[in-house]
């Protein structure tokens, strides 16, 4: 299947998570998202509810950006976000658990959010730039066991970096098509976006969505 501009647009979560973003900035994001024909807009939970076109999904984040929040807090944050209009929740897992290879705790943390928002699409942010291939694989498997819908590379806020083709390939091998894969962080042009899709990404998180689509 040829990846047209319209098809690529429908893989994009058009994102604005800067803490200084104002209501006017969010309104501009939504107008641009409608013009570009993207799949969703992703905003901070405190900016909900937002008024988006009927067919456009609304995503938000949870435990963002550190992931170090208590599981109960993440669950409550996710539930509140869904109650105020979020269709999808991108949660950050607890990296401390990963560093200690406590993957049962990783799974439990994810499951707490999954149980809080059973009707929403749940994406789990791994922060792959700080993880080994083994840790990425184990986090993907923990997310699958916990009932997540997607695994996601990055917050885009970690100093170690964002998405990489290699990380997406490791994630794709781990989930084998059973979960979606979202590449996010540093995707600012068409070439990078297409490389992520070729590696196995099924969704892209982009703030520079217009630039990403301009090459098609």
UniProtKB/TrEMBL annotation:
Question: Taxonomically, what lineage is the organism?
Answer: Bacteria, Bacillati, Actinomycetota, Actinomycetes, Mycobacteriales
Species the sequence originates in: Corynebacterium hylobatis
HAMAP family linked: DeoC_type1
Name the domain of life this protein comes from: Bacteria
InterPro entries, alphabetized: Aldolase_TIM (IPR013785), DeoC (IPR011343), DeoC/FbaB/LacD_aldolase (IPR002915), DeoC_typeI (IPR028581)
**Where, subcellularly, is it found?**
Cytoplasm
Catalytic activity annotated for this protein? 2-deoxy-D-ribose 5-phosphate = D-glyceraldehyde 3-phosphate + acetaldehyde
Quick check: keyword Cytoplasm in the entry?
yes
Provide the family line: Belongs to the DeoC/FbaB aldolase family. DeoC type 1 subfamily.
Do you know which CDD domains this protein is assigned to?
DeoC
**Enzyme Commission number(s) from the entry:** 4.1.2.4
Recall the GO molecular function terms of this protein's record.
deoxyribose-phosphate aldolase activity
Which residues constitute the catalytic centre?
Answer: 90, 152, 182
Which pathway does the database say it acts in? Answer: Carbohydrate degradation; 2-deoxy-D-ribose 1-phosphate degradation; D-glyceraldehyde 3-phosphate and acetaldehyde from 2-deoxy-alpha-D-ribose 1-phosphate: step 2/2
GO biological process, alphabetically ordered? 2-deoxyribose 1-phosphate catabolic process; carbohydrate catabolic process; deoxyribonucleotide catabolic process
The protein's name: Deoxyribose-phosphate aldolase
What is known about what this protein does?
Catalyzes a reversible aldol reaction between acetaldehyde and D-glyceraldehyde 3-phosphate to generate 2-deoxy-D-ribose 5-phosphate.
């Amino acid at each position: 299947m040829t990846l047209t501009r319209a098809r690529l647009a429908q893989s994009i979560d058009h994102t604005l998570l800067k803490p200084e973003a104002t209501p006017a900035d969010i309104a501009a994001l939504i107008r641009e998202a409608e013009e570009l024909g993207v799949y969703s807009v992703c905003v901070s939970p405190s900016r909900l509810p937002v008024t988006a076109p009927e067919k456009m999904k609304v995503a938000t984040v949870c435990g963002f950006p550190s992931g170090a929040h208590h599981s109960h807090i993440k669950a409550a944050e996710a539930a509140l976000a869904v109650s105020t209009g979020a269709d999808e929740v991108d949660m950050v897992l607890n990296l401390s658990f990963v560093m200690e290879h406590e993957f049962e705790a990783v799974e439990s943390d994810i499951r707490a959010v999954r149980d809080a928002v059973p009707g929403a699409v749940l994406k789990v942010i791994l922060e792959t730039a700080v993880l080994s291939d083994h840790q990425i694989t184990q986090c993907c498997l923990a997310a699958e066991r916990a009932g997540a819908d997607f695994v996601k590379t990055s917050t885009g806020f970690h100093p170690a970096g964002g998405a990489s083709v290699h990380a997406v390939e490791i994630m794709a091998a781990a989930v084998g098509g059973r979960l979606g894969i979202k590449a996010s962080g540093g995707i600012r042009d068409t070439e990078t976006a297409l490389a992520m899709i070729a590696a196995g990404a099924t969704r892209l998180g982009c703030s520079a969505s217009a630039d990403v689509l301009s090459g098609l």
